[in-house]
Give the backbone structure.
Amino acid sequence: MAEGVNVFISADMEGTAGVTGWEETQPGHLLYPRAQELMVGEVNAAIEGALAAGAGAILVNDSHDGMRNLPPSAVHPAADLLLGWPKRYSMAEGGRGHDVALFTGYHAAAGAPGNLAHTMTLHLVEVRLNGRRASETLFHAGLLGVWGVPVGMVTGDEVLGEHVAELMPWAVFVPVKRPVSLTAAVNLSPERARARIREGAREAVARARAGGLRPLVLPAPYTVEVVFTEQDRAARALTCPRSERVDNSTVAYRADDFEEAYLAMRTLTRLGTA
Ligand SMILES: [Zn+2]
């Protein structure tokens, strides 16, 4: 770490302060440019905080939807920017080999009472890992954990905060909004959200330097279950080799290896969305 801490930032959009509805997270919507501006403001705050604590190289992985949301010329010039799709490891792509990962704009899992809560797609009720509700945060932190990369900070709404505190007590959580319903929330002003994220990122990178973070290691074996909103979605997901039918709307996959369980989750959710 003599050359500074190598920082990986995975940036989603739904957990950004000021973004509360599905439509505005989609390119083409009237409010999408506003959501982009809010998203990049939080990403830049994380970069500034990381730099203040001695970050070296910084890679930002655009992790929302088509993964081309961050306007390159608006991103802090200290960071490299991973844009585009498809990516085998999605929100964790590019994270291998870094000293610490920071998740910005993340959100609660499908089935949880968070603002814009979902897991990979809107067409499912819940994803479970070993019988418990699982989030995008859990799956991507688990994948980074396989690579030995700890998550040092997560930002999003208060419901996500409870999940992060349970899953990764060593990580800084920065709440930027309080859910009122699935598509409503009380938001911090962008200025205050960014100030807290700047401070959270600084603290996370300082913890990384001090050896105070742990990679998330989820114990094997792994059973992934995806509960779809409609039976025909489950039927389509069942075309995945080695998947198993649990009931009309639920498909399971068992693996001894976390990367395989992760890729199965991606495959099942994608097949069921098609
Ligand atoms: Zn997203």
